[in-house]
Amino acid sequence: MLIYNGDFILESKLHLPIANRAFQFNDGFFETAIVADGKLRFWKDHVARMQAAAQVLKLELPQTIVSGELEEMLLQLAKQNNAANYGRLKLKLWRSGGGLYTPETNQADWLATIVPTTPTTTTPLHIGICETINTNYSSFSFFKGPNALLYVMAGIEKKEQGFDDMLLLNRQRIVSELTSSNIFWLKNGVLFTPAIDTGCVQGIVRQNILRWCRDAGIKTKEAYYDVTNLLKADTIFAGNVTGIRSIATINSESVSIDEVLVQQLRRALFS
């Protein structure tokens, strides 16, 4: 089952017109979230990011999303798809109607899918440095969708190189993010993460990690680091809505691992 514009339908019954603007122009965005133990993790933060993305794209969000009805509908969908215990939600929103580059309307269509999955492993990551593409800061880069091809190409390089993930740099060779996670590092008791204008996604877990650290009295800084300085960190880890994982090597070079903060964050945000 899935939800299309508020209606529960079988996946086999979904028919989208060839004029669909998501297909024709990538005119929209998507949100990925986790259902765990019958709840949508970090849901308020997801809604806030959707509202910010819609404002940038000049999309009018459906009343179902704005009013808060959506959360209940999604949990119903999770139950129907046997994903209430642990599942992955993908919510896609795109501009309705046809037209060429100039749209006919700013109203949005939407589609929600939820599938059962298993929690991500906590084993440390072995990552490479992506050389084929760079992140690019824009008014669209903080949310998911408009720059999706960038991460697809990074994923291809990851597969070719045999790494668990790839470290993405911007055009100035400044550390930005991983293909599907934000990156963090601890140095002299300060938690660092790349600044948003390096072109990274404003991740939901990124927001919650920074919030938790500030509440816990841990100094945080959004920074501009090159790889040489990143390698000198006391510990490096990655985080997204599926969890938090330490990083063990970068381009096969070992880096320091200290699981203390990582385990604290896992307990605080994912337990």
UniProtKB/TrEMBL annotation:
<keyword id="KW-0808">Transferase</keyword>
<comment type="pathway">
    <text>Amino-acid biosynthesis; L-valine biosynthesis; L-valine from pyruvate: step 4/4.</text>
</comment>
<comment type="similarity">
    <text>Belongs to the class-IV pyridoxal-phosphate-dependent aminotransferase family.</text>
</comment>
<comment type="pathway">
    <text>Amino-acid biosynthesis; L-leucine biosynthesis; L-leucine from 3-methyl-2-oxobutanoate: step 4/4.</text>
</comment>
<dbReference type="InterPro" id="IPR001544">
    <property type="entry name" value="Aminotrans_IV"/>
</dbReference>
<protein>
    <recommendedName>
        <fullName>branched-chain-amino-acid transaminase</fullName>
        <ecNumber>2.6.1.42</ecNumber>
    </recommendedName>
</protein>
<dbReference type="InterPro" id="IPR050571">
    <property type="entry name" value="Class-IV_PLP-Dep_Aminotrnsfr"/>
</dbReference>
<dbReference type="Pfam" id="PF01063">
    <property type="entry name" value="Aminotran_4"/>
</dbReference>
<dbReference type="InterPro" id="IPR018300">
    <property type="entry name" value="Aminotrans_IV_CS"/>
</dbReference>
<dbReference type="InterPro" id="IPR043131">
    <property type="entry name" value="BCAT-like_N"/>
</dbReference>
<keyword id="KW-0663">Pyridoxal phosphate</keyword>
<keyword id="KW-0032">Aminotransferase</keyword>
<dbReference type="GO" id="GO:0008483">
    <property type="term" value="F:transaminase activity"/>
</dbReference>
<dbReference type="InterPro" id="IPR036038">
    <property type="entry name" value="Aminotransferase-like"/>
</dbReference>
<dbReference type="InterPro" id="IPR043132">
    <property type="entry name" value="BCAT-like_C"/>
</dbReference>
